[in-house]
Amino acid sequence: QVQLVESGGGLVQPGGSLRLSCAASGVTARSYALGWFRQSQGKEREFVAVVNFAGSSTYYANSVKGRFTISRDNTQNTIYLQMNNLKLEDTAAYYCAASKIGGGELRSYDYWGQGTQVTVSS
Fold first, then answer.
1. Neighbours of 89 (CB within 10 A)
2. Hey, which bits of 1-122 come out as E strands?
3. What local confidence, expressed as pLDDT, does residue 77 receive?
4. Over the stretch 2-55, which tens digit does the pLDDT of each residue have?
5. Are 107 and 40 in contact (CB under 8 A)?
6. How far is 94 from 40, CA to CA, in rounded Å?
């Protein structure tokens, strides 16, 4: 059983930055890979980034490479998504998710947070 709570969303101008946080809890939480997905209104949910349980391996969607950074703090069982040089197309609800195998497929993830909204606008 894993519980996930996202925070840090908000309104930001194009080119600006935000940092999202996801607090994970539960007996087996530290053994899961933790990832970020996002979903814009009218679009399907898409993979953004994932980090393994040790925080030693990461993988990113091509659309965010070089701009977003995922990290993991196992002392507090929290992951972060540092988002820099934000674009209008980054506007979406961002979701934290936990997986036993990781990867970028939605079906690989067993637990999901409620989401936090990121809006990029002038």
1. 10
2. 3-7, 10-12, 18-25, 33-39, 46-51, 58-60, 68-73, 78-83, 92-99, 109-112, 116-120
3. 86
4. 899 999 999 999 999 999 999 998 866 678 899 999 999 999 999 999 999 888
5. no
6. 9
Per-residue pLDDT tens over the stretch 50-103: 999 888 899 999 999 999 999 998 788 899 999 999 999 999 999 999 999 989
**Centroid of chain to Cα 68:** 10
CA distance 89 to 43: 11
Length of the chain: 122
> Which residues are within 8 A (CB) of 79 and not within 5 positions of it... i.e. 6 or more apart?
21, 22, 24, 34, 36, 51, 70, 71, 72, 73, 96
Task: State residue 28's pLDDT score.
Answer: 67
Alpha-carbon gap, residue 37 to 96, rounded angstroms? 6
- The Cβ-side half-sphere exposure at 26, using a 13 Å CA radius, reads 14
Say which DSSP state 62 is in. Answer: T
